[in-house]
Amino acid sequence: MVAPVEGVHSATYFNLQAVVRPMRSLLFEIADAAQEAVRSTEGAFENVEVGMGADGTPTSRIDKIAEDAIFKVLDAKGNPLNVLSEEHAFKDFGKPDTLVVDPIDGTANAMSGIPFYSVSLAVGQRDLDGVRYALVRNLATGDTYYAAKGKGAFRNGEAIKVRRFRLESAQFLVYLGNRAARHAHGMAAMPRRTRSLGSTALETCIVAAGGADLHAVLMNHAIGGLRVMDIAAAALILREAGGELYDERGQRFNMAFDIKERRNVLAVGDPRVLEAFK
Question: How many other CB atoms sit within 10 Å of the CB of residue 169?
């Protein structure tokens, strides 16, 4: 259930977007193309690796399908943005802004028939603090989160905001796979409820929409953590909804547009969540 922002209605949303409509339209067109490409081949997502991405991880068939659709739109538009992606690294088209794209965040969910995987699109310069536009769409359901810097965050056209933290009713979303750091399991045991859903972009957006208090990705440092493609779009959406990103020391989180960098991160709604860890 989306937590509406008091006094902000859908009409206000569309008025706000009038000033950033060209970029918003482009991001929605890209998301539409990725979603259509994925849906047209639904049921054919056998776990087949079709290559190795620029980030050093295998490329699955569904990732390539979505990314090909994205690049097709950009090519048709004359490549208006540089592109940073997990499959092709940085493509420099001589533009001031860069599109940071994760064509499928939650590949394992998609291949397992779990309807929780997304395309993640962020536009900006240099680092997370430089992101100005962001879109995350659940490709299985169509639910779409969008934000423009200074204009608020929205889900399906309705304004969203983070919720007030109460430990007795807290819900955390914590990565608990075999690469999780030992203290991630301790964090997962703290609240009343903990979930591990498999898509950082969507889980961070759930925090932004008031559905959870925290999303944490804490991996063993020998292995690494998130890449900038995983979090770039959701970071702006969370911040525009009133939340913030922090590192493991509780410091405000930033991350360069660098495909090689991997970092652990806490996506927090109410900063009082951090007090619970002390």
Answer: 11
pTM as predicted:
0.88
- Looking at residue 149, what is its pLDDT? 97
- Asked, for residue 4, whether it belongs to a domain, the answer is no
CATH code assigned at 14: 3.30.540.10
CB neighbours of 183 closer than 8 A, spacing ≥ 6? 218
In-domain check, residue 34: yes
Domain assignment of residue 5, yes or no:
no
Residue type, 56: G
Q: How far apart are alpha carbons 68 and 63 in whole angstroms?
A: 9
Q: Which of 205, 267, 240, 256 is nearest to 20 (CA)?
A: 240
Q: CA 225, CA 180: separation in Å to the nearest integer? A: 9
- The residues, any chain, with a CB within 8 Å of residue 18's CB and separated by 6 or more, are none
Structure token digits, residue 251? 């410091």
